Amino acid sequence: MKIIKGLAVVLAMIVATQVIAKEAKPYPLDYWALRDVISNVSISPDGKHLALLKIPTKDGDPIIEVYPAGDLEAEPYRINSDPMEIQQFFWLSNDVIGMQLRQKVRDKIEGFNEGVYEYLLASVDIKRKKLKKYDQAGAELDHPLPNNDRRIIFSYLPGGEKSRIAAAFRPRTYYELDLKSGAKKLLLRGKLAMGQVEFDEDGNPWLARGFDVAKGEYVWYERITDKKRWTEFKRMSEDSFETFSVQGFDTQKPNIFFVTANNGNDKVGLWEFDVKAKKFGELVYLRTDVDVSGVRKHSNSWENRDQISGVVYAEKNVEVEYFDEVEMATQRQLEQVIPNAHYLRINSRSRDGASMTIYNVGPRDPGSYYLLHKGKLTKVGSRQPLLEPEKLADVRYIKYKSRDGRTIPAYLTVPNGEPPFPAIVLPHGGPFVSELVIYDEWAQFLANNGYLVLQPQYRGSKGLGLDHYTSAFKDGGQGGYKMQDDKDDGMLYLVEQGLAEKDRLAMFGWSYGGYAALVAAAREKQIYQCVIAGAAVSDNQMQVNYYRDRLRGAGKIEQLGMWDDSISPIEQAENVNVPILLIHGSVDQRVPPEHAERYRKALDKSGKVYKYVELDGADHFSNTLFYDHQKTLYQSMISYLQEDCGEGGL
Q1: How, if at all, do strands 308-314 and 292-297 pair?
Q2: How confident is the model over 208-234, as pLDDT tens digits?
Q3: Which residues share a beta bridge with 164?
Q4: In angstroms, rounded to a whole number, what is the distance separating the alpha carbons of residues 596 and 570?
Q5: How many helices (H) and strands (E) does the chain have?
């Protein structure tokens, strides 16, 4: 009887949800245009205060609000940094909050990767209510020194060398900063040969990385076995595509490092590495489907900062194989009580472990924060409180075959309703990055407006092994060729499965995704009704020439193999055979606006149909898209899809 009753309740809920779905109208575009209402929620080390970053109005700047942890209804202490904008904050002690600030200092970019913002580090004493800005431009927090409530370690990247290797290995200069007086003490001056340093919980340097220019090798050093000097323990040729990344050390046996590495395998695994013997030890964890992406550190970073609790990989979701049974049990208990639990983690914890903040995000949760304090669980708020779970879309993890037989994993955001749907393929940027779709605002926005959204992990995507990654460029650049087939074949697969309508297909992408959209617009065997290209690379040679002289080793093979040998959209402008919507930020430093300008001239010369939208003051990256930018973006996209995307619209 209980089973039947329970089943009846479930069926009733399903019917009710379907009715809601049929009656629901898309959210107003204003809802999607809002930046995160709250974010960065965290508890103080003593567990007495909770702080969060809030954007109080649609076009306002972020402020920090600090509440008594036991009374979230109390009037908060508010912190702003006008005229600078708070990007993020972090607790440095019980009473001091550190902040990363930025300010727009120019109207135009100064060249490739030279944007319009500059950055500062600052702190505020919530007891004394005093704000202190530190004058070193570009400074970043490296270590809060949990055992010292007065000092932190920060670093900055000095001017000068801008090679790809220097940027990758960050030859930063490190200082210890006195939070009270503002005095700083030089700890280490980084250089290319040894430029990226990490410190343990007491502020002792234990790891450094550098580059041997003469031999063309990356070099790793440690100061665990001999604390008085650096000892080299690993070299790797710059021509290698394999991964080697130190994740931490065994707190019981400090000479045993935990590293993520291929070590001769297609997939990245977690390995022990004995720095005394200078060789790999035991394999800790390896999968056959996806790479290990990293480790999960202990949730109490004040008391167990260097302790590794588990190994992390990502496929359908972020998954953790825990070594620490207490951490695992805590995680599982929280997953039972947090609504719509999907990707959930403790994002801050008091020193005594009793108080914590928990963050959850998933297809039906844009991101919510909770406080566990004195045994009581309280929802603090949501990044996007106007978006209700039942009106958002589910995300499925699928796999399909590309035409040459390669298996392509993909994420499918499915709108509420009955298939077949009009469908949009949304390729990620990069292209050589890992993508995990948990909650994707663009995909959810499109699904909310009735579109099925495919996000393929086409060849070149990382996280799926060396072969999948290098197949995009090792035998010639596949941009516009097999990489493009991967996207088209995914859409055709959805048509075959009865999920998508064959005459209602489009592509939308940003950065490399925008490049792919331009390539799609000129394909001879056309399957799309239109494309939307955001911040798109239109001229391969112009893009790679920004940094061609800085490339060497595997990076040179990757970038030149990709861009030199792949299809260049500007050379195919005369072959465009579907309408195009072009969108570009006016101060885009990564793909400068000249790409859009030159491509439009080529389209005009060939008499092609397109629309152009410029986002005034927007850079390449999402954190430079403000409310007005996003409102313009979303309005442009929806009106274009409905009115201009092929005959009768999409």
Answers
A1: antiparallel
A2: 999 999 999 999 999 998 988 999 999
A3: none
A4: 10
A5: 12, 35
Residues 6+ apart with CB under 8 A from 192: 161, 165, 166, 169, 171, 210, 211, 213
Tell me the CA end-to-end span of the chain in Å, nearest whole number.
48
Could you give the CA distance from residue 287 to residue 319 in angstroms, rounded to a whole number? 12
- C-alpha count within 13 angstroms, C-beta hemisphere, residue 112: 14
How many other C-beta atoms are found inside a 10 Å radius of the C-beta of residue 367?
21
Res. 21: pLDDT tops 70: no
Residue entry with tokens 């530190």: 134
Q: Where are the domains of the chain?
A: 35-282, 393-573
- Strands, sheet with 77-79, edge to edge from the N-terminal-most edge strand: 38-43, 49-54, 63-68, 77-79
Q: Which residues contact 380 (CB under 8 A, 6 or more apart)?
A: 38, 41, 50, 52, 72, 357, 369, 370, 371
User: Distance between CA 541 and CA 589 in Å, rounded?
Assistant: 16
Domain 35-282 has CATH 3.30.40.10: no
74 and 56 Cβ atoms separated by less than 8 Å:
no
- The CATH code belonging to domain 393-573 is 3.40.50.1820
Question: Confidence band (pLDDT; 50, 70, 90) for 168?
Answer: low
Closest CA to 417 of 92, 6, 25: 25
Question: In 301-364, which residue ranges form alpha helices assigned H by DSSP?
Answer: 325-337
Interatomic CA distance for residues 545 and 560, integer angstroms: 10
Mean pLDDT of the chain, nearest integer: 92
- Residue 171's identity, in one-letter code, is P
- List of residues 6+ apart from 154 with CB closer than 8 A: 121, 134, 136, 139, 140, 141, 142, 174, 175, 177, 184
Would you say the CATH fold of 393-573 matches that of 35-282?
no
Which of the 8 DSSP states describes residue 489?
H
**SS3 (DSSP) at 401:** strand
Q: What is the pTM of this model?
A: 0.92
Residue 217 CA to residue 331 CA, distance in Å, equals 41
pLDDT at residue 605, as a whole number? 96
In this structure, what token pair is assigned to residue 452? 């099925």
Q: Report residue 291: phi and psi, to 5°.
A: -75, 150
pLDDT tier, 4 (very low <50, low <70, confident <90, very high otherwise): very low
Which DSSP helix (H) or strand (E) runs through 223? Answer: none
Tokens 């790479």 belong to 291
Give the integer Cα–Cα distance in Å for 443 and 424: 9
